[in-house]
Amino acid sequence: HNHEPTSPLSPRPPALEMIHNQHEMAGLGAPQNQAPLATTVISIPSETSVPDHIVWSLFNSLFMNWCCLGFVAFAYSVKSRDRKIVGDITGAQSYASTAKCLNIWTLVLGIFLTIGAIVLLVFVSIAAYGMALRNMQYNRGY
What we know:
Blueprint: H1 14-28, H2 54-63, H3 69-86, H4 89-140
Helix pairs in contact: 2-3, 2-4, 3-4
Main location: membrane
Organism: Catagonus wagneri
Transmembrane segments: 54-76, 104-132
């Protein structure tokens, strides 16, 4: 059956006219925009990246907890992290500085006291072995 055009300018049926228009527009490609792209730069001040030394404090409180300094350092690290979350950078830096100082002291004391304990254990073992040898020699000749 034969379709009559709906507009006097177009000799094609409306469905073919729409397909023809879509085909012509597809050939044009993407629209070319000559306007420059706007960029936004967000600068984060270096003050917000306050190290809280919480991993170091946790290590010291678990493995080098001489005089409970590791636990105290861990408490200050947690306080520093809390201050940082609240937005108090000065308080976070203060607690972090104290935690760092306590961690250094904990590590130094832990190393020295561990080495001292090992040396003391070696000397006590040698002395006990020597006393046991002398005691065995003395008891044989009763």
